């Protein structure tokens, strides 16, 4: 166990599990793994209130993609089974300013059943 206080800065620094770069804690989203079962769900914890082990990731769906591909969450949470990142992805996409995702369909909002998005511009 390493006690706190090594860094002189006032703001805690965390490492993004996606791009592995360090950032101030308030620039990162805390993510926890919910559920003891073989398939755990990753849950966004922007306020840092949820108990348990947390991982930190940039508010950037691209970092989530990298983290999922590298199974960085499985390592961070010491889970052997798959982790469902869909909730976190939706959270990140809703927090990411639109226009920063080239070639991406806008899937931020849950689609209403029986109602399709038209080509209205
Ligand atoms: Zn990152």
UniProtKB/TrEMBL annotation:
<feature type="domain" description="YlxR">
    <location>
        <begin position="14"/>
        <end position="81"/>
    </location>
</feature>
<dbReference type="Pfam" id="PF04296">
    <property type="entry name" value="YlxR"/>
</dbReference>
<dbReference type="InterPro" id="IPR037465">
    <property type="entry name" value="YlxR"/>
</dbReference>
<dbReference type="InterPro" id="IPR007393">
    <property type="entry name" value="YlxR_dom"/>
</dbReference>
<protein>
    <submittedName>
        <fullName>DUF448 domain-containing protein</fullName>
    </submittedName>
</protein>
<feature type="region of interest" description="Disordered">
    <location>
        <begin position="93"/>
        <end position="121"/>
    </location>
</feature>
<dbReference type="InterPro" id="IPR035931">
    <property type="entry name" value="YlxR-like_sf"/>
</dbReference>
């Amino acid at each position: 166990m390493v006690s706190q206080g090594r860094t002189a800065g006032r703001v805690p620094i965390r490492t993004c599990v996606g791009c592995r770069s360090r950032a101030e804690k308030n620039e990162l989203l805390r993510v926890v793994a919910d559920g003891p079962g073989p398939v755990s769900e990753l849950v966004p914890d922007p306020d840092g209130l949820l108990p348990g082990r947390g991982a930190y990731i940039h508010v950037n769906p691209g970092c989530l993609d990298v983290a999922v591909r590298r199974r960085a969450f499985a390592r961070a949470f010491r889970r052997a089974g798959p982790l469902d990142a869909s909730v976190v992805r939706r959270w990140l996409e809703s927090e990411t300013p639109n226009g920063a995702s080239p070639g991406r369909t806008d899937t931020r909002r849950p689609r209403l059943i029986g109602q399709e998005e038209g080509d209205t511009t």
